[in-house]
Amino acid sequence: RVRNTKLYLAAFAAVLGPLSFGFALGYSSPVIPELSKISDPDLRLDSERASWFGSVVTLGAAAGGVLGGYLVDKIGRKLSLMLCSIPYVFGYIVIVSAHNVWMLYFGRMLTGVASGVTSLVVPVYISEVSHPKVRGMLGSCVQLMVVTGILGAYIAGITLKWRWLAVLCSFPSCIMLLFMSFMPETPRFLLNQNKRSEAIASLRFLRGPHADHEWECQQIEASVQEEGLNLSEFKNPSIYRPLLTGVALMFFQQITGINAVMFYAEIIFEDANFKDSRMASVVVSSIQVCFTAVAALIIDKTGRKVLLYISGIIMALSTALFGFYFKMVLPNRNNSSNSDVWFTLNAASPGTESSISWLSVVSLGLFVAGFALGWGPVPWLLISEIFPLKARGISSGACVLTNWVMAFLVTKEFHDFIGFLTSYGTFWLFSAFCCLNVTFTAFYVPETKGQTLEQIEACFRRI
């Protein structure tokens, strides 16, 4: 067993990127209620502006996914991560100095671009520096840091005004830039660039002086035989099968509705007539952090598919329960076709919401716990494992683009779904998609537990 604390140090430096990513995602939830009540009409967020403020970050992330897919193969994993800090910091500077809603949108877009690059590069970096015994745990730490960032934004948002919260959110990316400057590039990228001596030095840093660096280097070299990727090669099952699997994983992850729920967590609780919506959001986010940590600790023992099964079943049940809650509380208002009903629910059945308001917190808590156990961390881990080295950049870019386009569509249209399908109908639709996730896992998701990246690639070649 290889033990070297420097590997964990490299992983920690990298996951400061997902921490920044989490702060960017969580920023909207405490800020939207605050900006909806301010007196300045240029900055005040009505329901339409709020939906754009919450979702424009996902548009930036989709663009960042495409950019990251290019950068990760051209300039490397390490430098791509270091460059991420620039749009993060500049985006928050724009938000802090904002005088109108367009500056808010632009700042959110920039942090989204950085988040898109981060969400692609960090899983690739960690999977390539890790050895199989800990790759699942370290890969799951990506999602753990994302949800930790979301929780940090929620907690800080209780006491900090929106401009000071933006200042705080810029710190993790600055620390990542500092730490990553001392970390090595991944051995696989270096060998792909014919830099064998640098790859050996990287392995010595990551594995310690007593590991068999030469043997691991030879194993990697055996899979880095053909350089470049032609379009015609996508006819090869070893390339198109993992690509289709990865794209489908990203689609199914977002269609559960997780980002819509997290973006509008406070509004969900306000409209569910919960007395302290901010604290309820913090509780739900804390649950997400705890269960993501549990997933990280057990994923290398249980395997990837088992966690996806458990996660999908829990989410299907909990979203069905949340739909039942709204069906009970809002029997009349839910028939309205007005999409703004989601933001103005004040006429629920008298007394009903106070007697079963706990059900909204329990069902949403279960949903978040279920997502955190499997469909949160596992898809990101799998897309960092299943692609062959020469197709890793473009395939990961396609997956990240799919993820964030779907996140934008679900987040932006969430309150329109509420108006069209009713609130309970929307959550029941999410429940149906969660059932579909379980079916997809059973037939198409490979188990990668305990295998090297080279073994996984060879497995797809044989299919």
Task: List the keywords.
mainly alpha; 78% helix; 22 helices; globular
Structure description:
The protein has 2 domains: 1-183; 230-332 and 352-462. It is globular. The longest helix is centred in the N-terminal third of the chain and has 29 residues, at 101-129. The protein starts with a helix and ends with a helix. Residues 332-351 have low confidence and may be disordered. It has 463 residues and is mainly α. It has helices at residues 5-26, 28-35, 47-74, 77-96, 101-129, 132-159, 162-169, 171-180, 187-192, 196-207, 213-223, 237-255, 258-263, 265-271, 277-302, 304-329, 352-375, 377-385, 392-412, 414-421, 423-444, 453-462.
The pLDDT mean sits at 83
* Shape call: globular
Strand content: under 5%
Number of domains: 2
pLDDT < 50 runs, ≥5 residues: 332-351
Order of helices and strands: HHHHHHHHHHHHHHHHHHHHHH
Task: Supply the number of helical segments.
Answer: 22
The biggest beta sheet reads:
none
Structural class: mainly alpha
Rg value: 22 Å
N/C terminus separation: 30 Å
Helical proportion, percent range? over 70%
Number of strands: 0
In short:
This protein is an all-alpha fold and 463 residues long. It is built from 22 helices and no strands.
Topology, element by element:
Blueprint: H1 5-26, H2 28-35, H3 47-74, H4 77-96, H5 101-129, H6 132-159, H7 162-169, H8 171-180, H9 187-192, H10 196-207, H11 213-223, H12 237-255, H13 258-263, H14 265-271, H15 277-302, H16 304-329, H17 352-375, H18 377-385, H19 392-412, H20 414-421, H21 423-444, H22 453-462
